[in-house]
Design brief:
The complex is a heterodimer of chains A (133) and B (658). Chain A has 133 residues and is of the alpha+beta class. In chain A, 24% of the residues lie in helices and 34% in strands. Chain A has a single domain, classed as Nucleic acid-binding proteins (OB fold (Dihydrolipoamide Acetyltransferase, E2P), Beta Barrel). In chain A, strands 2-4-5-7-6 form a five-stranded mixed β-barrel. About 2% of the residues of chain B have low confidence. Classes of the chains: A alpha+beta (133), B alpha+beta (658).
Chain lengths: 133, 658
């Protein structure tokens, strides 16, 4: 049957594509953790990219514009993680607000952030403690 | 008062819609009856009533009637008039109203245009369109009421999100997107109409093709405008971030692109009938799904909204649409037959079938990458994300394959290609190989980029060759001059040559995408007055800060002198050369937000864009932090987008009947 053969071929091609896509997905998942969850992971893989979300601890932002170095502390109220970022803070980045950083944990326990994402919603509201991710 | 008019119109519209559905269902079996005739009043009434409610909301927005929650949440007294008007689609409730307004307009057009031509199908088609309206009207009468009142109206409103108030494209990007989204309801209604009525001949296909192409053209424009908005406003020098909101609009585009090609196979060869029905349904589902993603707050991103009562209703609607569509498809499946089969692999239809497979694989990639994080969170509460690397890794091979198929499909003929087409394939491949070798000689090195370039040139050349062949044949037949022959060629077969032009536009855009993704350079610098730095052939010198006060914001701009660098400019040693151009990237401080929003300054040429962002002002204004990005060939992306939209219009332009 020509028709069955065609359907079979299509099914094989489709399955191969789906396999490739899912395989690709497995390698690119980035886990999102809170500082407490990060602490709970005893041995963090230094090469694994993760996202860390929390509140920028008030008074912790140190921004050195000449060296373009940003340091701050992300906290979830229980655990605090120091963050280092090479580059300027993004728009809408302020102390006391929620932020998500993407990067890796260094051997010294400092989170090396490749990018900073500010939690921001379409409808402006004054930030509240409940806003914490 | 305006609020009452608005609410009352929406409620009345819902009643009219319900009546229309009832009348069409009741009268469907009988001969042209009073029921059907009265049903045709429903699209008219619906459009008038929804228009009244849009007018009411606009009046309230322009007059700053803060007793309406939506107005108070999304505008304030100093919002410029343009953005008060545009506030209609600045947030959830208003954009649902806009959606419904466009749907009412399209329903009216369908009713007026096809009533006499397709009297049998119309009751079904209009019932489906009215049923979709009923859902959106229910949303607005219920949880997404644009006219919800505030017990104590505030003195001033909260204002529009600064990111939305920062660019005039906000005025046209969402309406285009919605015209595209909502446009796909019409093909869906015709497909369901054909399944419901059991009249499964192909006559509805011509209407579906036209509406799909129109909606696709609007959606294409919306996508490119959105990319441009992102480029001009967000300050990262990129135009596409695989954000769920972008994906939501991209998914129906991918499936609709597949649909446009597979309906051509049906029209030409009588094949793929079931497949096309399935694609029409999938496209429509994806527009509803996209609205659900962006409007229910399930995804936290720059665009996402905080409301969430809406989500369950959307999911229920999606489930109902899926169930009804699949059930109907299953019932009618045995009666839908193809007229033959694909005879040869070296044929246009075979290439179109394969391109359908690739486009659907692309869709599935986007779908999985967008939905997977939601599924994981729903199942075990873990938050994960899938970043651009996944999408890029999949889209590079899939995109290359698609471009190859596009080139071959353009060269091959319907049915079975002969030696002439194969020779042409060889010639086009040789042209592509030759020009890529030349580019490699001029400095293009990375293997992946060389391959990508060769494929794009192959695809583009194939389109040009078709134009050249057509013009030559026409000149031989009529003796016209080349320009007139080209115009005559296009108007003699708008769909075909509009299609080739779309492909050409995509080739131009892809060149821009490859170049800007591969050869971008970026530098961040802290500067005091008089200091300068260099990036990729530009010398940039910081001169001074310039504050200005506008009605709705405080703008602080940094004056930067840009001149071509010869590699010799030293920091702070020279005054700007006479050829220097002054640009002023700025930070905007809006009263409604605590932190500023940047406005990049972009110097654009066909070769590259110099993209400058003022990131921060330090040390009491003595020092500024500037990000400079040199992005090659970005303007090719916008040009390609414009060609694609123009090509869509060419293909849609009504052919004069002789």
């Amino acid at each position: 049957m020509k028709r069955t053969r065609l359907l079979l071929a299509a099914a094989i091609v489709g399955a191969a594509l789906i396999y490739l896509i899912i395989g690709g997905l497995r390698g690119s998942i980035v886990y999102y953790l809170t500082p407490s969850e990060l602490r709970a992971q005893s041995q963090a893989d230094p090469d694994r990219t993760i996202r860390l979300g929390g509140q920028v601890a008030p008074g912790s932002k140190q921004w050195n514009p000449s060296a373009l170095e940003l340091r701050f502390v992300l906290t979830d109220g229980k655990v605090s993680v120091p963050v280092h970022h090479r580059g300027a803070p993004p728009d809408l980045f302020t102390e006391g607000q929620g932020a998500i950083v993407e990067g890796t944990v260094g051997p010294d326990g400092v989170f090396e952030a490749r990018s900073i994402i500010v939690k921001h919603s379409e409808e402006y509201k004054p930030p509240t403690p409940a806003d914490q991710p | 008062m305006t609020a009452s008019i608005g609410s009352a119109s929406l409620l009345a519209a819902l009643l009219v819609t319900a009546y229309g559905i009832g009348a069409f269902v009741r009268g469907r079996r009988s001969e042209p009856s009073g029921w059907i005739r009265s049903g045709y009043a429903a699209p008219v009434g619906l459009f008038v009533l929804v228009s009244a409610s849009v007018a009411a909301l606009e009046v309230a927005l322009v007059r700053s009637d803060f007793s309406i929650r939506y107005v108070a949440s999304n505008t304030n007294l100093v919002t410029p008039l343009l953005f008060k008007v545009v506030g209609l689609w600045g947030a959830l409730e208003g954009s649902i109203l806009l959606w419904q307004w466009i749907l009412a307009l399209f329903t009216l057009i369908v009713a007026l245009r096809y009533r006499s031509r397709h009297p049998d199908a119309m009751p079904y088609v209009l019932s489906v369109l009215l049923a979709i309206s009923a859902f959106f009207l229910l949303l607005m009468v219920g949880p997404a009421d644009p006219f919800a009142r505030l017990a104590a109206p505030p003195q001033d409103g909260r204002g529009l999100n600064p990111l939305l108030q920062n660019h005039a494209l906000m005025a046209i990007h969402p309406p285009f997107l919605y015209l595209g989204y909502v446009g796909f309801s019409v093909p869906y209604a015709f497909a369901m109409g054909s399944l419901l009525s059991g009249r499964l001949r192909d006559e509805w296909m011509a209407i579906t093709q036209r509406w799909t192409l129109a909606a696709w053209t609007f959606l294409t424009a919306g996508l490119f405008l959105g990319a441009r908005w992102s480029y001009d406003v967000l300050g990262w020098g990129g135009y596409w971030g695989w954000d769920p909101v972008e994906n939501a609009a991209f998914m129906p585009w991918l499936v609709a692109t597949a649909l446009i090609h597979s309906t051509m196979v049906q029209a030409r060869r009588g094949l793929l009938r079931i497949w096309n029905l399935a694609l029409v349904i999938l496209t429509f589902l994806l527009t509803i799904f996209g609205t659900f993603l962006t409007r229910s707050g399930v995804i936290a991103s720059v665009h996402s909204f905080t409301q969430s009562l809406i989500g369950p209703l959307f999911l229920a609607f999606l489930a109902i649409v899926i169930l009804i569509s699949l059930a109907l498809l299953a019932i009618r499946l045995p009666h839908v037959r193809d007229d033959g089969r694909i005879e040869s692999l070296v044929s246009r239809e075979a290439m179109m079938v394969l391109n359908n497979v690739v486009l659907l694989a692309m869709w599935f990639t986007v779908f999985l990458g967008t939905v997977f994080p939601l599924a994981v969170e729903a199942i075990n509460g873990h938050k994960v994300s899938v970043g651009p690397p996944f999408f890029n890794r999949m889209f590079v091979p899939l995109g290359s394959l698609l471009l190859l198929l596009m080139g071959m499909g353009t060269i091959f003929r319907w049915g079975r290609s002969g030696p002439e087409e194969l020779r042409r394939l060889g010639t086009v491949a040789a042209v592509s190989a030759g020009s890529t070798a030349l580019l490699a000689f001029l400095g293009l090195r990375e293997p992946l980029i060389v391959i990508g370039t060769a494929i794009v040139i192959f695809m583009g050349t194939a389109q040009l060759v078709e134009y050249a062949r057509g013009v030559r044949a026409r000149r031989a037949a009529t003796g016209e001059d080349p320009i007139r022959a080209l115009a005559g060629l296009i108007s003699s077969n708008r769909q075909r040559y509009g299609g080739y032009l779309t492909h050409l536009g995509l080739a131009v855009a892809v060149v821009g995408i490859i170049a800007s993704m591969s050869y971008r350079t970026e530098v961040e610098r802290a500067l005091t007055a008089g200091e300068s730095f260099e990036i990729a052939g530009y010398a940039i010198r910081y001169e001074a800060l310039m504050p200005t006060v506008a009605v709705d914001r405080l703008v602080i701009a940094a004056r930067l002198a840009v001149s071509p660098s010869n590699g010799r400019a030293m920091a702070g040693t020279r005054a700007p050369a006479p050829s220097a151009v002054i640009v002023a990237p700025s930070l905007n401080f809006f009263p409604q937000d605590r932190t500023p929003v940047a406005t990049p300054a972009v110097r654009s040429s066909w070769r590259n864009d110099l993209y400058l962002v003022l990131i921060g002002i330090e040390d009491g204004g003595r020092q500024v932090v500037v990000r400079a990005i040199v992005n090659p060939l970005v303007s090719w992306i916008w040009a390609g987008g414009m060609i694609m939209v123009a090509a869509g219009i060419v293909a849609l332009w009504p052919t004069r009947r002789s």
